[in-house]
Every structure is written in structure tokens, then in C-alpha cells.
Write a structure and sequence with these properties.
Layout lengths: L1 H24 L3 H38 L15 H26 L1
Helix pairs in contact: 1-2, 1-3, 2-3
Length: about 110
């Protein structure tokens, strides 16, 4: 049940922050939540990828220079935490809201 609260708080914080960004710049809220949700998820994904790459570089350097076995080189695997689940839920919800909002434009 604790994970559900974390997911809900993540969605709420993301909605509030993107709403404030849309007010500050005068952008459409619908467009901001869709593209902003993708951008925030992309930043989280790139951060995890960078951490994995940095650890692999350190382990390879230590093994090559000193012969120390500090760890193994691991492939990147995206970690699903309650926060990333909240980000994905926000993206799905914002996609649905955007499709419903712009549906009449696709009919013409």
C-alpha cells in the first residue's frame, strides 16, 4: 500500500510542477503535460544509464590499471521503482488526455 502512495504523490508532484511551468511560460497545459512527462521520464532514464556507465568505466579502469576486482561490468537494466511507475502512469494519463483533447482535429 505504501507503493501506491508513492506513485500517487509522484503523479501529483509532476502534475503540479508541469502546471506551474505552463503558467510561467504561458504554454498550453495539455501540451506541457504530454511533452514534460516524456522529458522527465527521459531524464530519469538517462540518469540511470549514466550511473551504470560510470560504474562500468570505474570497474574496467581499476581492473586494467591495478588488477583489482572491484566489480563486474554489467549491462544496463532499467530499474522499476514506485517513482518510475508513477512517471509511467503520468505519461499514460497525459497521453490519454491529449488524445481525447485533440481527437476532433483528427476527424477532419
Amino acid at each position: 500500500m505504501n507503493k501506491v502512495y508513492i506513485i500517487a504523490v509522484t503523479v501529483a508532484i509532476e502534475t503540479l510542477s508541469l502546471w506551474l511551468v505552463s503558467l510561467f511560460f504561458g504554454w498550453s497545459f495539455i501540451d506541457t503535460i504530454f511533452l514534460g512527462g516524456l522529458a522527465i521520464f527521459g531524464c530519469v532514464w538517462l540518469f540511470q544509464l549514466n550511473n551504470n556507465q560510470t560504474n562500468n568505466e570505474y570497474n574496467a579502469f581499476a581492473k586494467g590499471q591495478n588488477g583489482l576486482d572491484t566489480g563486474v561490468i554489467t549491462p544496463f537494466r532499467f530499474k522499476m521503482t514506485p517513482i518510475t511507475m508513477g512517471l509511467l502512469a503520468f505519461i499514460a494519463g497525459s497521453f490519454l488526455v491529449t488524445v481525447v483533447k485533440y481527437y476532433p482535429y483528427f476527424l477532419n
